Amino acid sequence: MAITPLRSRRTLHVQGASAPGRPERANEDRWGARGPLAWVIDGASQPAGTEGALSAADYARRLGEELSVRATWESAALPEILAAAIAAVGTADAPGPGPAATVAMLRSRGEELEWLVLGDAGCAVPDEMGQPRVIIDDRLARVAVAQRQARRRARREGAEPQVLAELSQRLYRAELAARNTDGGYWVAADLPEAAEYALTGIAEHGPALLFTDGMSAQVGPGARWVSWAQAWRDWRAHPPRQAVAEAQAAARSQSSSTVDDATLLLAS
Question: pTM of the full predicted structure?
């Protein structure tokens, strides 16, 4: 397919911030923007002993680079751009299951915004009343439920590190079995066609948000922001680095929580 540069769409103005959950570990989140396109990427953490030659952090970085290369493709829909980026990174021939990532994207289209969400990254766009419409792909949360609950319970009860490591391995294997399968969940990994299963839509142009699950985990009862309405106001009113810092501080104060990498991008 011949791809022509994008000329009619306006440039998105973007502010973003990202921070690792633990300073001794690489940040597996990435964010970026070029021209009319913006994105956040959350590389999926892998338990010790399951990592391949390409780490989750490296995969997220390379996927972002490939999205940037394709940011000005005019005739391509967002899933096509993402599929091409996944294919360009090319992990299908790597040994083992390989890394994966969740992705959320925005693209300016005149007076509208196109959005895409694949995996449990998310976006928030204004509805016709200016209130937040929050889109998060929750298909991952529907698989490996028993294994996820077991690990969460063990963390809450202060289980020994080796117990948590075994539970993480069990959860990883259960999630891997459902990855990029019908009835399972879809993420950027070794199958470019996974992009076809992304959630997509169009919203009115206005300040919009992209975020990883390190941010969305702190929205809801008992979290830093009690509702999406509150998060929508605060995240747009202050620099993203402030919200990221507050999300991670809240996670550290919650004994049953781990501190995840967190990324927030504000686009207008």
Answer: 0.90
